Structure formats: C-alpha cells, structure tokens
Amino acid sequence: MKKEQIEEIELKYLNKYYYFLKFAEDEMFQGFKTKAKIKDDWKGKYADGISDFAVGAERIVYSLLNGKGIGQPNSSPVGSDLFFEVEDAYIHLDMKTVNMNNIGDFTTSIFIGENQNSYKGTIIKSGGNSEIYEPALPTFYNKGKKDEKICLSYFITILYDKDDLSIKVISIDCMPNGALEPFYKNRPLKAGKNPGKARFNIKEVNKFELLPNEPSRIKVVYYDEKMDSQVDKKLKLFKEIYQKQS
Prior knowledge:
This protein is α+β, with helices and mostly antiparallel strands. It has one domain (3-111, 137-181, 208-245): ECO RV Endonuclease, Chain A (3-Layer(aba) Sandwich). Helices cover 30% and strands 26% of the residues. The protein has helices spanning 3-23, 25-33, 39-42, 54-68, 104-107, 181-184, 229-234, 236-245, and strands spanning 72-73, 82-86, 89-99, 110-112, 121-124, 130-133, 140-141, 149-160, 167-175, 189-191, 198-200, 218-223. The strands form three sheets. Strands 1, 2, 3, 7, 8, 9 and 12 form a seven-stranded mixed sheet that branches. It has a three-stranded antiparallel sheet with strand order 4-11-10. Helix 2 (25-33) runs antiparallel to helix 4. The chain is globular and about 55 Å long.
C-alpha cells in the first residue's frame, strides 16, 4: 500500500468517528452529568491517583461506541481498550482525559501505550540521547496474506476542569501508522516519563502531510467557546480546527 493510500484510509475513519461523536454529542454530555445525581455516594471514594473524571467518562464514551459504533469488536488480548475490525482495516481506539493543570499533555503530546500504536521509531531524549521505541501492534494485520488489513490508531482526548469537572475540549486524534516512518521519521514520537515509554507528538505531527491540502489529523468534537482567555490562547490549534469545521 502506498503511503498516500495509508493516509487516505486514516482520514476516512477519522472522519467517520468524528461524525459519530458529533451525532452522539448530546448523549455523551447527558451521560457525563449522571454522576452528579449520586455525588454524595462516590465523592472521595475513588482510588488515589485515579482521575475523578476519567473512569466515568470512559464508561460513557465506550458504551456509545460499543453499542452504536463502527465495525466488529475484536477479542485479541493485545490492543487498545476498543479494538474493531472493519472491511478494510483494524482500528484501535483509546481514550485520554487530561485536566487543565496538565494542559501541555493535551496540546503538545499525549501518552501512548505500546498496545495502542504501530509506530516503531527513534525517540530523541533530552541531552541528545536516543532510544528505539518498540510498539506492540503491527503496521498491518495478516501481512502478506490475502486478508491483510492495515492497523489504525486513534485517541479520543478530553480536556476538563478538575475543580468543577466541566469539559473544555473533546477531540479525536489520529496517530500515523508505523509504515509511514520513512516519511515522518522520529517526529511523531516524544519521550515519555519513563524509559521505553513514548508520547504522540501532536504539536509536531497534526496533519496528513502526504494528502492534498494537508487535512488535520485532529478533529474537534466539542470546544467550550466561553473558555478563559488565557486557556483559550494555549488551545489555539484546537480552536482554529474547531472554527474551520463549523
């Protein structure tokens, strides 16, 4: 498969998931609000180190995608939280929640697990050191066989306010398939907090650079237009994408 064809199929399913999430936007927000009804029964009881927003939000989004989403769920033990097979691809989809105190984890790079991507490459670390990053996913499933299909990686990312649990931005991001490494080189990868761990460098790679007009690898499902001006400035890229979509 040519590199341009890879990006065409990545864009195809990015658009499909974006339109699905837009269609289900009201249901998503209704689901996010349900925690308030029983707040007195759960407040302060979630485990230390676990976001007071992440677990519940993931439950809502995943239920919508599993119930009305795209493709056949796959039972492989290696993969993202959601793993679907469609006619021409295998799709890995994971969800990330970031509170505004860590806004850089949303605007510049997001943590990726080895089971969530296929991008083998070199991570350039501080001080000029480097290491080879080894993902767990293949670039193609059943490679070389008649039923070969490409492996795609997407991340639904939610930025929220930790104080009142209000949502500021919901986006869906597409990480390049590992077969695009000869073109993107090491740019999609950024060092994680621990050795051998990586982040998807969305600040550096946020467009389908091989396609005409370089469409964005980010789709913004929701943007709080009443955002604090200082936060709004930090979210310039996402606001521009949102306005172009409107």
